[in-house]
Write a structure and sequence with these properties.
Number of strands: 19
Structural class: alpha+beta
CATH superfamily of the largest domain: Creatinase/methionine aminopeptidase superfamily
Low-confidence stretches: none
Mean pLDDT: 96
Length: 382
């Protein structure tokens, strides 16, 4: 599906629901018009008039991409094709530019404005100042009708992202050594993904490590990153490469030192649980919660249900986590082309843990895994 076709379909969906749409530079605009996101910053980098940055369109008017000069020039967005670009100078009045855009749209009184969920509050405050009687709705929810089922082209792009991710992992494995810190490994993973052609990690690369002398630690990165990994430890990887706007998510388990019988057992169980989940990902013949239940029950029956602490998986594509979700209470019926992670885990605070994660496409006969490598427990021996 081309970007133009997506825009046209979105405009058709807007008709009758909204008189105007505002979509900032984010996932939604990347999907609609191929205007790519950049590597995110930890802190916000503000430009004069940044609140108007994004596409403005109606059900019948083609989008106008409004950009502050810094975004247009330094961000490389001024050369966007297929849309009219208007650049706000550093000393120009952003409200005047938006008034001019709105005047061309000839909006009705009390217009309904569809705004991306990723828009900043500052943008809504300014829009409401200009249109006090506006009624706001979610543009992202309207877009869900297009984004949930992936096209063959999107699936092919995601498959390529998975290949980059696995290639990076293959480069990392022979470099693993006793005494490395968690930060050493994370930095190597991120470097190798970029070497494979990824713009960067789709989320913060994470390790979840545990063993008798290495308690599981989550949410305290500046502490956990410093820890040296000395056997016996289970090292659980969670990372993914970005490619042409799509986001991969991947997980595997590595044993530092010869694995104990318990390590071998928990690894085998999560691999079996994932296989059950993949087999049940049948388009048109299962709901999200049924897939979760089937895979979860395997770990419950083995006595490890309490250590599987999260949902089985999530929709994935242009964002890392997207609806629907493979979890209890989500009764969405699977459709062919939906993509999910299937990521069972066993997390034990001071015991051995294990996790696996791949992106799976729902098909009539069961899920199609986009990555299939490294199924065996990898052992670091020195």
């Amino acid at each position: 599906m081309s970007s133009l076709t997506r825009l046209e379909r979105f405009q058709a969906l807007l008709a009758g629901k909204a008189d105007l749409a505002y979509v900032p530079i984010c996932t939604d605009l990347d999907y609609l018009a191929g205007i790519s996101r950049d590597i995110p910053n930890f802190g916000v980098t503000l430009h004069p008039g940044a609140w108007l940055e994004g596409a403005w369109l109606t059900p019948t008017h083609a989008p106008i991409l409004a950009l502050p000069r810094m975004t247009a020039e330094y961000g490389g967005k001024g050369g966007a094709t297929g849309v009219e670009v208007r650049v706000l100078g550093d000393f120009d009045d952003p409200e005047k530019m938006v008034r001019d855009i709105l005047a061309g749209f000839k909006l009705p009184a009390k217009p309904r404005i569809a705004v991306s969920d990723m828009a900043h509050g500052e943008s809504l405050i300014h829009i409401q100042k200009l249109i006090p009687d506006a009624v706001f709705i979610s543009a992202t929810e309207i877009l869900r009708k297009l984004r949930t089922v992936k096209s063959p082209e999107e699936i092919a792009t995601m498959r390529a992202a998975g290949a980059m991710t696995e290639a990076a992992f293959a480069e990392v494995l022979p470099k693993l050594k006793f005494g490395m810190t968690e930060l050493d490994i994370i930095a190597e993973v991120d470097y190798q993904m970029k070497r494979q052609g990824s713009l960067g990690a789709t989320f913060t690369t994470s390790l979840y490590n545990s063993g008798p002398n290495h308690p599981l630690m989550m949410g305290k990165r500046l502490e956990s990153w410093k820890r040296k990994i000395v056997p016996p430890v289970s090292v659980l990887f969670d990372f993914g490469a970005s490619h042409q706007g799509l986001c991969y998510d991947f997980g595997r388990t590595v044993s530092f030192g010869a694995p104990s019988a318990e390590q071998i057992k928990v690894h085998r169980l999560i691999m079996e649980s994932q296989a059950v989940g993949i087999a049940h990902l049948k388009a048109g013949n299962a709901t999200c919660e049924q897939v979760d239940h089937a895979a979860r029950q395997h770990l419950v029956d083995a006595g490890y249900g309490q250590y599987f602490r999260h949902r089985l998986g999530h929709g994935i594509g242009w964002d890392v986590h997207e609806p629907p979700f493979l979890t209890k209470g989500d009764t969405t019926v699977l459709e062919e082309g939906m993509m999910f992670t299937i990521e069972p885990s066993i997390f034990q605070a001071t015991g051995f843990s294990a996790r696996v994660e791949d992106v799976i496409v729902a098909r009539p006969g069961g899920g199609e895994a986009l990555t299939k490598g490294f199924q065996d427990l990898f052992v670091v021996e020195r």
